[in-house]
Input
Amino acid sequence: MPKIKDVKKNLAETIEEIKKSEDINSLYVWGSYAKNQDKPNFRIRDIDVIALTGFHSGDLVAIDNEILTQKLSQEELEDQGYNPTAIKFSSNFLRFKKQNIDHWAISSDQKLLHWGPIPSSKEESDELNKEASNHAFNQTGCCRDKIHRADQEIRDNWYEEHHSYLNKAFTNMPSGWYLSDTEDIQEVLDSSIKF
Output
């Protein structure tokens, strides 16, 4: 779990690389990085990056890991009902994995989507993260609030336990774009950093 000051410079470089991708109207960073950007020693698990796109949410939700790995022509994709441009966007955006980037998109119909399964509501997400933090505490003896003062081995163990707990919650769910139940997209953008 790196500190904000450790990822700041590399994040700017990564964002500049992502911005070169086609079909991204704007990029935003939100979540724990955006909330704590003025706390250089705050440790974060991942960096939530949102790509504002011109694709309809239905075009994105249809995309999963399986279709990204197939080598189909544009015509074959269209024949199967896919938007080839949305697939190209997804493939390009997802290739950026530096600094544990968590990929999000906002569609043309104002839906927030996440690559990979997510809890259906903020309340469910908060509860799941609380459970994961409690599990990590029970396994390591270190709580989330004191993780920044722990030695590297404890931090690594805490993160691994937390991550493992979250992964188990979504076992057997395919990778792909998932719709969030967030309705106030403007609130998400207002709490984000635009790049």
Remarks:
- The chain has two domains: 4-117+173-194, 122-168.
